[in-house]
Amino acid sequence: MNLTKKHLMDTMETQLSSCAYEKYTITDLTKTSKMSRSTIYYHFDCIEDIYLYLFENTVIRKVMLECTNYDEVIVSTIDYILANKILCLNLYHLTTLMNRQDYLLGILSASFHRFELPLNTPLLTENYLMGGFLFVMTTWLDGKMVTDKKIVIQQLHDYGNIVKTHLTI
């Protein structure tokens, strides 16, 4: 990552970690990063791209850092979200791309394949079964994460077992 992108990501992470935002714009980022709009647009097409880049290069990277199996990914994800609640809720609520089922299913599927499943599973069946994970996570995030961590982890483990059972037959 070049220094400009790193600065933009650090700035945005700091801002989105400080308080809940209903809207965070390129204008907000220009003010806090002290960078021009043209510099930001040189690196990113729109604010959605910046949210996505931050999510993939900060959140996903930190979650997956030391995981060696899918069960660890589940625990690491929940722990990261709880430790970075404001940032994660802001990213979840501010971006439309990350709320799209296809995007989140893709992330779930990729991490599941990385640790648990062969790559030749039928996509439609896999997405249908992965929808349970998506439901648990979106329900938890939409409910402001009031459900106990252990319950959410257990629900995700249960869905993981269902997926493993049905997709490895």
From TrEMBL:
Top-level lineage group: Bacteria
SUPFAM superfamilies on file: Homeodomain-like (SSF46689)
GO molecular function, a single term: DNA binding
DNA-binding found in the keyword field: yes
The keyword Hydrolase appears for this protein: no
Keywords assigned: DNA-binding
Family matches, as PROSITE patterns: HTH_TETR_2
Annotated region of DNA binding: 25-44
Domain (HTH tetR-type) ranges: 2-62
Protein name per UniProt: TetR/AcrR family transcriptional regulator
